């Protein structure tokens, strides 16, 4: 078991050598409400302010895939396998058209959730671990994976403030964990945390305490990001920031 | 014996991997990307009588399938659909309940794939996964429930077409095989083998023009549509021949008349149904 878990994306590194990728891939992972997107936004602003070529990509965000699946999602009931494959399609589209070409062009690509999100969710939904790993096996292993760890109560409180309703799949209602969406959500998220904890070790996540002060977390994150920036560009990070607009 | 590809010149080296015949047809040796290499150990591990790989785990004990899954594979214009339209009423006349299925027919995204293809914006792996999602939806919502209820499911193409298309687009066979690890193993898979030169006549009879994807125009084989079609269909045929042994495809000489092919297929199907039942 542990051998299949370890290095799920091991061969992604060969892609780096073969294709001579000049860019860097930085990933944040964590459950909803862990603060990862906030931290990623701050990293983006930091790198932009030093005039670096940065691209941010979010999970499940391919417009084209969304357009195609939105109709079907309403009509049909998604099984764990189709759910998994639709997300895999979304990822492939972003990977083929954006992530990989931009890495080749030398960009710093920031991914708000990456294959580890699929691993955690799909495995919790009942897909075979081996299978999910294989489906994403072509993906490049990131240069660094930040995992924002928060206790479930903290995350749930952050997420549910001012939210009238949880969506069906978001709450994991398809898993029949509980008839109460909030209870279902809690059990679902806890199982995802358990999966993340396993991967944190096997995949070498940089674990950040998501309950500490935002500035403190960001300082830690920046320290680690510096370490993976190509040497010839590190000097730029020491320079004064330039004025940048707020990204749309 | 199926028409070995004659059109060799002009094809690039990536598709002409020659192997001694005794070797297992697919081992990932000519895979062009960086997936985990498949080992014999790995292949052996999935001994499931039902599925190609780990299958659908969350179905658990609920996998008693009393129906039969019969697949007809073959290129565009090979006559699959006409065959099915004859076989279905015949089986029904014999007292079997029959359901038909095919690619791109899922409620979920069948239409979506068509739309996307019209716009030519999909990457090869994206398209491959789209088809896989479409297939998974039909497998779980249509094929498996029908088999549970004791139907004969006639599938107008199955994962083999999808895997062959992927392979021609240089997606690793190891990967495609693993991707379809959730697919049910059919009871029978026929492959209508038509010589690509004959095929092109039938395509013109059917549509009067060559389809963009069926000509493999997205693969970039040749500027010339006619040449591209022949090359592409030859490459597909080659992939099918490679798959024959591994997946137990039954080659059917598709160069004969519809009636001849039909007699052949019906005989094989009833041999299977009635010797099996006893």
Remind me, CATH topology of chain B?
Answer: Rossmann fold
What is the structural class of chain B?
alpha/beta
Q: Please name the fourth-level CATH homologous superfamily of chain A.
A: P-loop containing nucleotide triphosphate hydrolases
Alpha carbon gyration radius of chain B: 19 Å
Count of structural domains of chain B: 1
- CATH topology of chain A: the name is Rossmann fold
Structure description:
- The complex is a heterodimer of chains A (248) and B (278).
- With 248 residues, chain A is of the alpha/beta class.
- Chain A has one domain (11-229): P-loop containing nucleotide triphosphate hydrolases (Rossmann fold, 3-Layer(aba) Sandwich), CATH 3.40.50.300.
- Chain A is 55% helix and 10% strand.
- Chain A has helices spanning 2-5, 12-19, 36-49, 63-75, 80-104, 115-125, 129-135, 152-160, 181-202, 214-228, 231-238, and strands at residues 24-29, 54-58, 108-112, 144-149, 206-209.
- Chain A has a 5-stranded parallel β-sheet with strand order 2-3-1-4-5, with helices on both faces.
- The radius of gyration of chain A is 18 Å and the shape is globular.
- Chain B has 278 residues and is an alpha/beta fold.
- Chain B has a single domain, classed as Rossmann fold, CATH 3.40.50.300.
- Chain B contains 9 helices and 5 strands, in the order H-E-H-E-H-H-E-H-H-E-H-H-E-H.
- Chain B has helices at 40-45, 80-93, 110-119, 124-148, 159-168, 173-179, 196-207, 225-247, 258-277, and strands at 68-73, 98-102, 152-156, 188-193, 250-253.
- In chain B, strands 2-3-1-4-5 form a 5-stranded parallel β-sheet, with helices on both faces.
- Chain B is globular.
- Mean pLDDT of chain B is 81; it is low at 1-45.
- At the A-B interface, helix 2, helix 4, helix 5 and helix 7 of A face helix 3, helix 4 and helix 6 of B.
């Amino acid at each position: 078991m542990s051998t299949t878990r370890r290095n799920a994306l091991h061969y992604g590194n060969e892609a780096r050598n073969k294709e001579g990728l000049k860019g860097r891939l930085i990933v944040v992972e964590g459950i909803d409400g862990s603060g990862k997107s906030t931290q990623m936004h701050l990293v983006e602003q930091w790198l932009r302010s030093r005039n670096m070529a940065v691209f941010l990509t979010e999970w499940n965000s391919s417009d084209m895939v969304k357009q195609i699946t939105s109709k079907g999602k309403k009509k049909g009931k998604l099984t764990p396998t189709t759910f998994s494959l639709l997300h895999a399609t979304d990822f492939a589209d972003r990977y083929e058209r954006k992530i990989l070409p931009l890495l080749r062009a030398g960009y710093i690509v920031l991914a708000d959730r990456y294959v580890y999100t699929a691993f955690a969710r799909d495995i919790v939904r009942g897909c075979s671990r081996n299978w999910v790993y294989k489906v994403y096996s072509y993906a490049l292993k990131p240069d660094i994976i930040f995992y924002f760890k928060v206790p479930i109560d903290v995350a749930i409180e952050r997420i549910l403030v001012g939210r009238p309703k949880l969506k069906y799949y978001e709450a994991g209602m398809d898993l029949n964990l509980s008839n109460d969406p909030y209870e279902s959500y809690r059990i679902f998220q806890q199982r995802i945390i358990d999966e993340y904890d396993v991967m944190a070790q096997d995949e070498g996540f940089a674990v950040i305490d998501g309950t500490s002060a935002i500035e403190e977390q960001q300082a830690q994150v920046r320290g680690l990001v510096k370490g993976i920036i190509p040497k010839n560009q590190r000097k730029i990070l020491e320079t004064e920031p330039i004025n940048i607009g707020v990204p749309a | 014996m199926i028409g070995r590809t004659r059109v060799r010149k002009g094809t690039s080296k990536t598709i002409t991997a020659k192997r001694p015949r005794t070797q297992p047809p697919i081992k990932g040796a000519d895979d062009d990307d960086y997936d985990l290499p498949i080992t014999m150990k790995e292949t052996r591990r999935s001994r499931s009588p039902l599925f190609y790989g780990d299958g659908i785990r969350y179905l658990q004990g609920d996998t008693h399938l009393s129906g039969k899954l019969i697949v007809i594979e073959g290129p565009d214009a090979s006559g699959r659909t006409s065959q099915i339209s004859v076989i279905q009423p015949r089986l029904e006349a014999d007292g079997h309940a029959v359901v038909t299925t095919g690619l791109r027919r899922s409620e979920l995204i069948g239409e979506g794939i068509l739309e996307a293809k019209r716009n030519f914006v999909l990457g090869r792996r994206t398209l491959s996964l789209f088809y896989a999602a479409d297939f998974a939806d039909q497998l779980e919502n249509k094929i498996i429930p029908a088999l549970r209820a004791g139907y004969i499911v006639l599938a107008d193409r199955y994962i083999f077409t999808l895997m062959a298309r992927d392979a021609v687009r240089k997606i690793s066979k190891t990967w495609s095989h693993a991707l379809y690890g959730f697919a049910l193993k059919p009871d029978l898979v026929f492959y209508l083998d038509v010589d690509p030169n004959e095929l092109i006549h039938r395509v013109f009879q059917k549509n009067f023009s060559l389809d963009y994807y069926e000509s493999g125009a997205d693969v970039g084989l040749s500027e010339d549509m006619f040449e591209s079609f022949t090359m592409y269909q030859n490459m597909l045929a080659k992939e099918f021949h490679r798959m024959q042994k591994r997946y137990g495809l039954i080659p059917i000489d598709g160069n004969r008349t519809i009636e001849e092919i039909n007699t052949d297929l019906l005989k094989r199907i009833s041999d299977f149904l009635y010797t099996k039942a006893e």
